[in-house]
Amino acid sequence: MSSLLTSRVVASCVTTSLFALMGATAAAQSWPSKPVRIVVPAPAGSSLDIVARLLGDKLKDKWGQAVVVEPKPGAGGMLGVDVAAKATDGHTLVIGFPGPTAFAPFLYKKMPYDAIKDIVPIVITTTQPNVLAVNANLPVKNVQELIAYGKANPGKLSYASVGNGSSSHLAMELLKAEGGFDAQHVPFNGAPPAALSTANGDTQLLFAVASGIAPHVQSGRVRQIAVTSLARFDSLKDLPSINESGVKNFEAVAWNGLFGPASMPADVLSKINADVNAVLADPTVRERLVASGMAPGGGSASSFKAMLDGDMKKWGATIKRLGVQLD
Length: 327
Prior knowledge:
Strand content: 15-25%
CATH topology of the largest domain: D-Maltodextrin-Binding Protein, domain 2
Mean pLDDT: 91
Strand order of the largest sheet: 2-1-3-10-4-11
Number of domains: 2
Shape: globular
Number of strands: 11
């Protein structure tokens, strides 16, 4: 091939690449072209709903489009995640959590979506421990008293969870196994009804994020006794960790994060990541999240993916060891 022809081929390839890059950049800059939907796979008033609405309020100004928050609880969060996994409008996201993303592949033989192939992690929004809470009339004030009570009163304890396969559910199954006591599982669709169940005494204990049980703690009907982070959590310093309370190496941290369908263009995913990171850096947003018992997230999509992979590895083995199956 002559040097002149070679130069023309190279120039053509460079031009094609530049046009492709310009096209991708233009697509990202023009997104969103219509209202953005954030599906919340939990009920209104849940911690996920709080985070989605807080982000949406800021993102609508940044994007110049309405951000519609749509609670869609059910099936342990899988109902809402499935909506986003199958969305083809390019403007649907979901705020996910460990249950329907990291745990479900090990809990169910059949799922409506592939948690690895059909959705992609975009950005971590918050991290927080679950809080171990009990009905105020239960005569226990710490983890060891709860374990002792459970052993001495077989068949008398039941626990609420925010849904089958949630961190709320699996953390209690792990605590039961490590502590050697039993309690009957009663799943709910989200923290508000689960917490109300424990406040009313229909169930005696639960794991839930702090914001989900706060009204009942304030009313005195629910008592918080520990957190599931390995050490004490900054915004809940008065509560010991379960690890600190004698159940060594116990850790079950909850997180929330934005996911998109696998069909969403990479440049759009990058734009969403950058814009959400900017919102999470806003001092007023950070203050509101911390006040709700959550640590603001942020970071790259790859760091979110690494955390998700780590949870799948850890909890996949734990689920197998505990023998938890939901179908």
